[in-house]
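<tokenise_the_fold>
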Amino acid sequence: MSNAERSPTPGIAIVTGGARGIGAAICTRLAADGLVVAVLDLDERSCGPTVDAIRSDGGSGLAVGADVGDEPSVASAVERIVAELGAPTVLVNNAGITRDNLLFKMTVDDW
């Protein structure tokens, strides 16, 4: 299916750990596919180069600082994203936090 055949309504994606590496590549790819991307990382300033790359390619991105290991920090980040971009339709959990457990067995605190 080509990009032209997809839904004309762009989605809004949140990518955790989006400031560099695989996360940044995911962000730029999603933006190239027409999504608006919230680039989320521990330090908001570190998201700048990824957002700049998205914008230089004609996309739309927002740098957001949040600690994904801290529930209030994540809640605040999502509230900001919803207020500035709208409700997210895609979530990519790319941030690297190591917990020795299966995802479906994790508590909110471990998440």
Notes: Helices lie at 21-32, 48-56, 71-84.
